[in-house]
Each structure stands twice: as C-alpha cells, then as structure tokens.
Amino acid sequence: MEPNAKGLGFVTLPTISTPKDIVSLLASVIAARLLLRTFYTTILYPELFTPLKHIPTPAGRSLGKGTTAPSQKSHAARLRYWSKTVPNNGLIRYYLPGNQERVLVTSPKALAEILVAHPTDFTKPKATRERLWYITGRGLLLAEGEEHKIQRKSLVPAFSFRHVKDLYPVFWSKARELTDSLEKEIKKAPAKATRATLDIIGVAGMNHDFDALHDPDNLLNRQYRRLRQEPSWIEVLCSFVTSLLSPKDASIVSQLPTSRKREVKEASDYIRSVCRSIIQEKREKSESDQTTSEVDIIAVALKSGVFTDANLVDQMMTFLAAGHGTTSHALQWAVHVLCKHGQIQTRLRQEVRDNLPSITDSESTISATELDRLPYLHAFCNELLRFYPPVPITVREALHDMTVAGQRIPKGTTFTIAPGVTNLDEQLWGPDAGKFDPERWMQKGCANTGGVQNHLGFLTFLHGPRSCIGATFARSELACLVAALVGRFRLELEDPNKEVEPTQRGIGAAPVDGVRTRLEVVDGW
Predict the structure, then answer these.
(1) What is the pTM of this model?
(2) Which residue numbers belong to the known binding site?
C-alpha cells in the first residue's frame, strides 16, 4: 500500500502465518504488559499514586530490598523494630522487595476491627489462597463467609476440651515413642520431632498411624515430605513476578504448569486417596455400629452429618497443613529454650517427675487432670507460644474500601498481622516483654493471661471467628511432648554460642537448621 501523503507512511506489522508466530507475538505482548505493569507498580505507584501516604512509614527503602531496618535479619525482627521506632496510631506502612506495599497492624483496636468486628471484610490474599488450595482444598482454612461458619460450627465439638482430653493417651503414647527413638538415635532429634507430631495428627485426627517415627520412608511419608518441600528460588521469583501483574494476568500465569505444581498435585492426590479410604471405612463402620467409640477428630465430625466425604478429605488435609508443622516448630523452639535456660529445665523436670508416671513405663498413660496439676509446665508452654509463635506473621486483604483505625483504606490493601510483634509489645506486656519468663504466667490471676493488658496482646492463635480452632489441641499436644522430653533427658546445645535464626517453613517459622542438641538420659524416673 502506498503512503497517502508526502512524508507519511504506514507501520508494517509482522506477518503472522504460523503457530510459532502467534506464540512469539503473544509472548511479546505479555512481556510488554509485564514491563509496563512492573514500572507502574514498583516506581510510579509507591511514589505518586498510593492512597496510603498518610500512614506512618519507616525511612529507608529500595526497590531490591524494600523497607530496611538496621541489623534486623528476619522479617518479624524488622516488623518489631518498626513497631518500636515509628510513631503510629495502630498502622505502619512498609514495603517488601519490589516495592510491594503492606500495612502492619500494631494496636489492639485495629486488630479487633480486622479480626473480631469485621472478619468477613478481609480475606487471605489470592496468591496465598491459590498456593494452599493445591494442598487443603476448601477446608476450614480457606472457606469463607457462610460456608466457613457452617464448617466451624460443625467442627467445634471435635476440638473442644471435653473431646481433646480423651486424646491425651494418644499424645503420651507418641511422646513415649519419640523418647524411645531418641535414645537410639539422638542426632536426628529435629527430624524425629517432626515425625512424632505427624504421627499424632494422623492418630488423633483420623485414627490412622502414619508410623513416621518407625518407618519414615514408607510411601505415605515420602509423599508427605514431597508436599512439604520448600519452593525453589525460581518458584519464589515467579511468585514475586506474578505479584506485580494485574489480577487478570496473574490469574493466567498462576495456572501455568510447573514441575513443583505437578509434584504437589501428585503427592496431594496420593494422600487424599488414603484419607478417602479411611473416611469411607469410618462411615461404613458408623452406619453399621452406632455405638462406635472412636474419638479422633474425623470420627466426631462424621457424627455431625454436615460433611460429605470430599469435605472431610479437605478438612483432614487442612489439619495436616495447619496442625502438624506448627507444633513441630513449637517443639523445636521449646528444646532451644530449655537448652538456653538450665534453671527452667531443671525446675520443669522436677515438676514432671513429681507428678507424672515415668515415660519409660510402657503401661502408663496420663489424663488431662494429671497434666493440669503441673502449673509450671503450663506456664512454660504459654510463654513459649507467646515468645515463639509458630506462625509469627499472617496477612489479610481488604475486600472493599473501608476505614481501619480511623484511616481510609482502599480495596486490595494487604495487612500484616504479626503475633511475633504483638506478643512482644512492651506497651501490652510491660518493659520485660522481650524476656522469656514463665513466671509471668504464675502470678495471681495471670495463669491464662500472663498479665497482658489486653487479651488481643496474645495473638498466637489469633482472635475472633477465624481464630485457630485447634488451639486447645495444640496446647495439650505440646505440653505432653515437652513433659516427656524434659522428664527423660538433660538437653544441651551442641554449640551454645551459635545464634539460632528463624526461617519460614510452610505457614510457620522454625529454626534454620533445626536445634542441634546433645541429649543425656537422666536416670531415676
């Protein structure tokens, strides 16, 4: 075609004649959109267009590192530093690498608005939900609105103290298996702690023993390890890039198949098949024998009549995802603290030995009543959960424009709710908030509060309709495991001078390399 005026011409478009040309063009368009979106998201938006400029923000920000804090290595440590040093009225704005904007919630008032007063106005960010969906399905962790209310109401009886107290013999039995195993192979203590908590979830959750302590390489355990593998740096990079895209583009990219997704799906499908078989067997048994006395969580949920088999599989996968790793992490932190504080370890061992039967007695078991007679054990576990919350950071996204702590907040704003910050807040816990001290739970009237000024100051299990339904289960399981370990062994760190740093593991935080410990059997119990 000829130009229609002097000096003017037409842009020549590339000839598209093959599928390869189409793919090349689409790739070019996507790359251009990504580049423009990245420029807007990382440069223009935080500098010129963010509606959150009025929220206090720490100084020091770069595109590659986000908002920085001097000498603070972990994310939770940086958040604690800002909460202390940035004057605020309940909210602090900060940035992750790539200038991803976040709002840290620091006051009980703001926390109450999000968690208690308006919980349905906030949800887990889409990226988080999609990542968990492959594992948990639509269980209690990801259900929203009316569906979540129905599920929670139906599951509450299974997690009530009246029911959990019947599971103490399970906890104690697995604690015995753990101590027996550690006597034979002490060097693998961190791995064995993880296997013990997996076995407990299996038996207490669906009356099925994964037998991870004795047979860690059976097919079910191998598949579960595949499910829990940490993402590669390439997957982390892809996740970061996806966060820069528009919701529509991000949704398309998130559906692309990757080797990790295939691996997760294969592992999840196998574990789900095991869960389905167990649930079907339970359903048939309950229909033929109305007097069945099974006390596991799924058996109790079955009796509610609310859940289909598919629902129950999702719930079991949710319990595995949310309940196994977190207790394992808490136990590792417990060992670390006991090693660092010899006087606490000695006092705790004496209380356990004075009140509980020996863990070496294969015929012995314990009841909730017996364990309740150990005030220092409960004080220790409460302080541990305060000081080292297994999930130190969680996030919520605003579903529409709203006001929080008197500040106007636009739809899509991501809030950081940080038990690892709130639990150590000096304004709530006093000037010694940063000190590990079980005695704060031993004071008159403080056995359940630790003396905190506001109940929202203890955020380990969150609050409101979306608080952790398994809090009683987790506390009881942890108390039994700690009692067994400290009652049987003297614990020391292999390298007392080595700093133990937390790292993200799944939805929780654990010591980077586990806790390298020397265990010595203490006779006389």
Answers:
(1) 0.88
(2) 468
